[in-house]
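Hi there,

I know you've been waiting on this one. I reran it after we fixed the sequence typo, so this is the corrected version. Both the input and the resulting structure follow.
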Amino acid sequence: MRSLAIAVVVACSVVALPRQSSAQEADAAKLVERGVAYYKTAQAEDGSFTAEAGPGVTAIAVAALLKSGQPVDDPVVAKGLAYVTKNLHEDGGVYGEGSTHKNYETCIAMVAFEAANADGRYDDVLKKAAAFIKKEQWDDGEKLTEKDLAFGGAGYGGSSRPDLSNTAFLIDALQMVGTSPEDPAIQRALLFVSRCQNLETEHNTTEFASKIGDGGFYYTIAAGGSSQAGATEDGALRSYGSMTYAGLKSMIYAGVDKDDQRVKAAKDWIAKHYTLAENPGMAAAGLYYYYHTFAKTMKALGDDTLKDDAGKEHNWREELVATLAKSQQANGSWTNTNERWLEGEPNLVTGYVLLALSYAK
């Protein structure tokens, strides 16, 4: 993790950039403690969490526990890892039988295995999984060229068209295991990501690029293009919060310079729409996915504060902790009243929150 506190000694005193206060750190620790306690009551006998949704939710729960400080030999963690491991396949993927979400499930499983890999026990698994998700990427293997708008993207897996969310998971997973930003798979993915931005550049000359031009991101340019936030009357695809943070983070991981116009435009969009009250453009839909992506992106940016369009400075860590404290349930879990994208499921949402808090440390 990049150092986020730069101390300057002036006249025998120390002046530090804004960070979480010790009180906020203590508040965050309490949230994490209660979230971890929830998971220790929610695990099924076979080690899974919400098994009917496939191994992805279990992998998120395990990753969240590990990143919350639980040791790899903790009984809940160990059983969860054993369950996820049962979903390993010879092709390197980690997915349930008959899954239509192979890319998504494998990318999430990689997060759990990497978090448990201090002793190298999952080196081979991670290497094979990385190769698998590269094969899932839409490229010349599907007889596509760079002219095809699906090129470089990743979908849920199989024949599902690529989208920015799954492509961001792919970039995250490859970056996490040490893949160079110059790796062809990441650079192919960057082309797809750039084409999902409402910004006309040399990297994006699609029909939607200049219709809004606000620098935000939408769900996919593939298959005619679509946004979960809908389209305008003239057919422009609306930008929204979770995808804008996902797009920005993906560009950072792909080595795009912070002075690049794509990054600047995305940061301008965020400044204009900064909020933790909702997923901008989507209200409560995907709210906890948004919190997770928000926190991971802000960590990648390395900024302690964010200045909104009105000039107000926000200590994003403190505001995130305060927001999440208000919505924790009595049993230590979190859930969304808007159940879209499985966010009515506490095993999933609690994982999003604990991961978000780990990135906000």
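Quick highlight: The first helix runs from residue 22 to 42.

Best,
R. S.
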